[in-house]
Amino acid sequence: MKKRVLSALSLATVLLILGGCGGGGDSAPTNTVNGQLIDSFVKNADYVCSDGEKGVTDENGSFSCIKLPITFSIGGLKLGNIGSMPKDNKIFPQDLVGVDRNDTNDSSVVAMARFLQSCDEDKNSSNGIQISQTIKDNLKNVDEVFDENNLTAYTTEANITLDVNETEAISHLEKSVKIVEEIDKFYSPHQNGNYSKGGISDTKSMQTEITSSVSNALLTQNSTLLTFSLFPEIKIKLRKIGIYKG
């Protein structure tokens, strides 16, 4: 089977976003809101639902709440509050700040992106952003909503180095946004919340297809290869927007 090389950011985001396309499983309550926190997918961020239910995002950045709004935080530092979910159920820094998804140059968005990417445990946000428990503990006494003017203070309190500059942060964020947009054009939710590709119209069948496709992808820490045999349309679109180089 023919394989093409894809950037680590593109592959990781594609696989994990696709994994989230089907929403929750059949056992989840019908009124449960499922989503993903993304600037790459953010793991181990705290969230609190309006009914008091608490949780942490998983390796896909996934979260689940029955009632909105949802407040996201790292330790005591609140990243933002979401009162209504975007149509794609993805939460980016832009959504937390309250600006348009394409406004990646907003100063507050850039500051948050730099902070999140600098918090990544392995300093490689292309494979996801993992927030360590140590960082959360360091920030537990920071009882405020994220303020771009206090970025230096947050990094000092978290005991991390702000090692992602503005250009790098914006570039990374824009790539993630483009990938989500292209995948959501391919796997588009109907009004009833189900997804369709071609003749497939039910969530269960879509999830089965996604799982089968992802199982055909090969990912290692040293080389990143993705089999596109089941995703030719996505391959073409990612090539057009300059992310896929194969």
Characteristic terms for this protein:
8 helices, 246 residues, 5-stranded mixed beta sheet, 3-stranded antiparallel beta sheet
Mean pLDDT, rounded to whole units? 75
Strand content: 15-25%
Can you count the beta strands? 15
Spatial strand order of the main sheet: 5-4-7-8-11
- The termini sit apart by 15 Å
- Domains (count): 1
Secondary-structure element order, N to C: EHEEEEEEEEHHEHEHHEEHEEH
The total of helices stands at 8
Structural overview:
The protein is an alpha+beta fold and 246 residues long. It has one domain. The chain is built from 8 helices and 15 strands. The strands form 5 sheets. It has a 5-stranded mixed beta sheet. A 3-stranded antiparallel beta sheet has the order 1-15-14, with no helix packed on it. The chain is globular and about 40 Å long. The N terminus is likely disordered.
In short:
The protein is an alpha+beta fold. It has eight helices and 15 strands. It has one domain.
SSE map:
Elements: E1 4-5, H1 8-20, E2 33-37, E3 42-43, E4 46-49, E5 54-56, E6 62-65, E7 70-74, E8 77-82, E9 90-91, H2 93-97, H3 107-119, E10 129-130, H4 133-138, E11 144-145, H5 151-158, H6 166-186, E12 188-189, E13 195-196, H7 203-215, E14 218-219, E15 224-226, H8 232-240
Parallel strand pairs: 2-9, 3-10, 8-11
Antiparallel strand pairs: 1-15, 2-6, 4-5, 4-7, 7-8, 12-13, 14-15
